[in-house]
Structures are given as C-alpha cells and as structure tokens.
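Contributing: when you submit paired examples, paste them exactly as shown. First protein:
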Amino acid sequence: MTTVSQLITDAYRESNLIAVNSSPTSPEQTEALRLLNRVVKSLFGNEMGDPLDTIPLGKGNTQTPSNVPFYMDDMLDYYVPKNTLLQCNLENPVTVRLDPSPQDGSRLHVVDASGNFATNSLTIYGNGRLIENSTNITVSVNGLSRQWFYRNDLGTWVRLSDLELSDESPFPEEFDDLLIGQLSLRIAPRQGVSLSEATGATLQRLEKKFRAKYKQSQEVPSEHALTRLPSRKLYGFSGTTNAFERGLPKW
C-alpha cells in the first residue's frame, strides 16, 4: 500500500516542483496533507457512491409525530441499509447489523444526537464483513460522529478520519494516480505552475474509472408523505384510505 507521504511526494514530482529522490519541505508536506484530506472528503457522495439517507435510531429526546415513516428501532431484525446516516437518540444499549452484501464504497455514518453513548452504547456487527478489522465494534463516546466506508478488496468497513503522513492511502493502489493528480491540481497554482496536458488526460480517465467502480444502485425511497395502512397494506396520503392504492410497492 502507498503511504500518504509518498502520495504527497509524487504530487510534487508530477508538477516537477522537486527533483527525483527529493522530498517536499516540512511546511510543504503540512500544506499538502491539509489539501489531500479535503480532496478525499470531497470524493464521498459525489465521485464515490451516493449521498447518505438519514434514519433515526431511538426515540429519546424526541416528540414523535404519527406520520414519521419509520425508525430503525422498528426493524432491528433487519440490516441497516447502505449509505445511511443513523441519527441516534438511544434510550438503552442497541445492536445493529450492516448489509451482508455491501457494495464497494457503501458508507455508514453514526451520530450520537443525544450525547449519551457512554450510557447507551451502540454495537455494530459487520454481518459477514469486518468493521475496523473486527467482526463488531461498540461505540460508547458521548457526542460521537463517525463514518465508515466499505472496501471490497479488503472485506472490511474502513473508518474515515483525517489522514496522517504515515497512513496508507484510503483507496486501492489503482487509484494512487487519481489522488496524486487531484493533489497536484491543488498544489501547482500555489507554486505558479500548470499541470501538463498528459497529467490532465490521465486525471480525467481515472476519474471516470473511479466513478464507475463505486457507482451505487440506490433504491429510491417513497415520499415521506406516504404512510403505510396496516389493515390494507397500502400506502395513503396522510392517513387516507383510498388514495394511491395502485402502482405502489407492498410491504
């Protein structure tokens, strides 16, 4: 795997800002690391996968209206859908399971909205996959906000956090040149140089490849105004019994 420091060095070489076998200065590395973290964060939900859908988990500190579509509490025997932000207001310790067949690049974001994970922890099972290289993890830090994304080549949900110089690239090696090119695009103007046409062409090719690899087949949810009618197993508009009876999925 390629280290972050090597990506930064290669980005400076890409614009011929340093010689072979040379390294950026410490201030240059610090600046480049800050830019690289911005580049990586900008890829998620844009070039990589889809934006996250928010699903509430726990009803603590909430006044629940009758027409809220559903809570994760009501389907704990099911797995958490891919590309989900779990908005947690837990009233007791809870265990959830992730998709047993996640797509490459699928994401999970957990937020402790009530600030009580230390008392009411959340346990996350990888469900046949690893999460942070373990079969399950328990988060118990008040106010925690943490994200993961699934790497199919490693079979694990990788924690998203700011990169350090000694860290490895968050993506497979086949996309090293994508990060190098993107970082070069940010560094070059600050050094008064421009990227070559060859670098630009390579960057465009890799961006297309990156989007294709992490393209998600996202199921479109029903509108929040549509509620399930328990007795007839149909959807209606705000509790009506005769609207939207056809053409809608049954549960």
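Second protein:
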Amino acid sequence: MRKTTSHRAVLAGGLACAVLLVGCGSTEDSTVPVADAGPTSDASEPAAGVEDGVTTARDLYEGARAPLTFASVGEPLDVAAAAEGKSVVILSITDSIPILDQWGTTIAAALESYGVSVTRVDAQSNPELAARAMGQAISSGASAVILNAVPPELIAPQIAEAQSAGIPVISTNDTAEPGVDPDVPGVVADVSFDYTIPARLMADWFISDSDGEGVALSYLSDGQASSPVMEKAMKDEVDKLCPDCEISFEDAQIPTWFDGALENSARNQFASNATLTHVLPIYDGMTLAIDPAVAASGKTLSVGSFNATPAVMQNLASGSSAVKLDVGCPNDWFSLATVDTTFRLLAGLEAPDDYGITCRVFDESNIGEIDPSVENSVDWYGIDFEAEFAKLWGPASG
C-alpha cells in the first residue's frame, strides 16, 4: 500500500526534492477501493449499488457544468486609503508552472491598479532563494508579503522575523481548505480554493464515464499542501459511489514535470497496466507532461485534470486529445480574493475566512461555448470578478 503521511510532514520533503532538481522516488503504487465521502455527496450511508452510485456521480458531475454564481464576502472598504504608499512582495515557489505565473500576474495587476508598489520574486523551487527573498522583503520595509504556493514551513524563521517587523505574511493554498488556520506563526491569513471540490468532481466524472467499471491512475505531488487533500477526497468519493472501481496513486514531484521523468514514468505505467481506462493528474501542469506518454501508449485512455489552464483547455476543445475533462475554479476569483485579503490587512481589518470559491466542469458538452485560448471569467464562468470586487473596493487609481 502507498504510505500515507500528514500533509504538513511531506511539504518540506517534497520541495527539498524540487531544490535538488531530482524527483524523489515515487511512492509505492496502491490500488484502492477507498473511504467515506465529503461535501459533494451525502456521506451518511453507502450507495445502494453500482448503478445508483454511477447515477449519483453522473448527476453531481453534470450539475457542475453550468456557469457559476457569485456571493460577495466582506464589507466595503476604503482601498485608496489602505493602498497609499504601500509596497507588497509576491514570492512564488516557481513561475515555471503556468497557473502560478497567472496568479502572480493577476494579483500584481490588481494591487498596482490601486497604487501599490509590487515586487515579484520567483524562488525557482529553491527554499534558499525563498528565504533570501523574505529577508530582502523585510529589509526593504515591505508592507506585506504574499506567498504564492510557497509552503510557509520552508521559511518559518524568516516569517517570524517579518512578524517581529510588523509585516503581515499571507499564504495561498497552504491549507487547501478555506477556514483552516495556518500553522506557521506570522502567517496571518491563507487564501485557498476548496480543493475537495475539484477532486470529487474528477472522481465523479471517472465513475460516470466508466459506468462504474473503470481503472484510474491519479498523479499526485506530495510536496504540495493540496495533494493529500485531493487524494483523500478522490478516495472517499470512489469508495462511496463506486466500490467496484479501482483507483491508484503515483507521486510526481514538481521538477519531474519538466525534466522528462514524469513522462517516462507515465510511459512505463501505461505499458504495464493493461486494464487502465482513466488518468487523473491533479494539476494541469502534470497533464501537459504526460500528454506524449498517453499518445504513445496505443491505449484508449481518458484524461481528466484540474486548473483549466488554456493549454489543456485547448487540448480538450480540439477533440483529438485524450483530455476529456478539465475542472476550473476561477483563477480571477482566487487571485482577487488574495488581493482583497491583502487590502483588508493593510487597512488593519480582518479578512474573510472563506471567499466561497466554487468550480465548473468543462467537457465536450460545454467547451464549445467558450474561447479556450485565454481565461476570461465572464466567458468561462459567467461572472465579472473585477467588477464584483470593485464594488467593495471603489474605483481604481489608474
């Protein structure tokens, strides 16, 4: 069986592998009929049978195809006053991952539109660079620091120094579930998607698409806080709704996405598993890495992923790719929620614990309704997030 570890324990180890630019050996594979369900389905009792479970999964998955709705969180605030003369450092674990670069770009643009001076730093998956950047942020007198997917545990001493200097540190996606308090002292807020939502939707699609008879391989990345959360949510949903389905898990550290190791591992996995029907990389960055292996396998494999990045969405739209599902949680919603938290902290206010970010399923039924080449929130999700947050913040300064 694949060994399980608290996600807090694996964060530093996973990214230490990233520093060395070698993949930690992949965890032992497991085939799991799994545990209990979460918020997407009723966990009070098991499904009555395979047919009922497949029907439930299909209803949940298909129900998530529709555009989203927005509920405002928090009271209006005087952003112009809060932003005046302020400087913010955005420290990313690596901007080589497209979605992290997108988040950083959107956050920076929104802060700058209200007159905040922004410095972006790419730690290149190196904790030493991240620690050095935190030291520079402190010495420069930054008003706040935003950690873009940097596990705070890696730079806890520098965060403590920032706390002593009165500099608020905001983490992103460290808890992987809204409303969970960050563990590292000095991290005053964490803005996160609820990663159980896309994980369960991916599982629902797998169950539905395979008619309750599928065999899936999911790629995780144990150095990321969301990885164990998504693993558990997928396990729970499969066990709840499809006990006859099989799902196994393989670890893939971030550097392996770029150096060919993940592609090679996937080729071996696909060749050795004659019954495999579905592949579930939990991040789009992995999906791009395994695409050549899927194409070379000679198998009819269906791929479902999460992040709704344009490169993967375009593959889905092409109709010729193995990608049949991409779950999108609006990146503008998340990015602007991070900005809203920053503004509130700069104003001396408390930030909301949960911005209520939800997700939409994209598949062949609705991908033709949008332009997949660039994420446009109105087009993709039916919401103008900039306009919604501007109602709370007032007009931008330029």
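If you have annotations for the second protein, write them as plain sentences, like these:
The first strand starts at residue 31 and ends at 32.
The chain has two domains: 7-63+195-328, 79-193+330-393.
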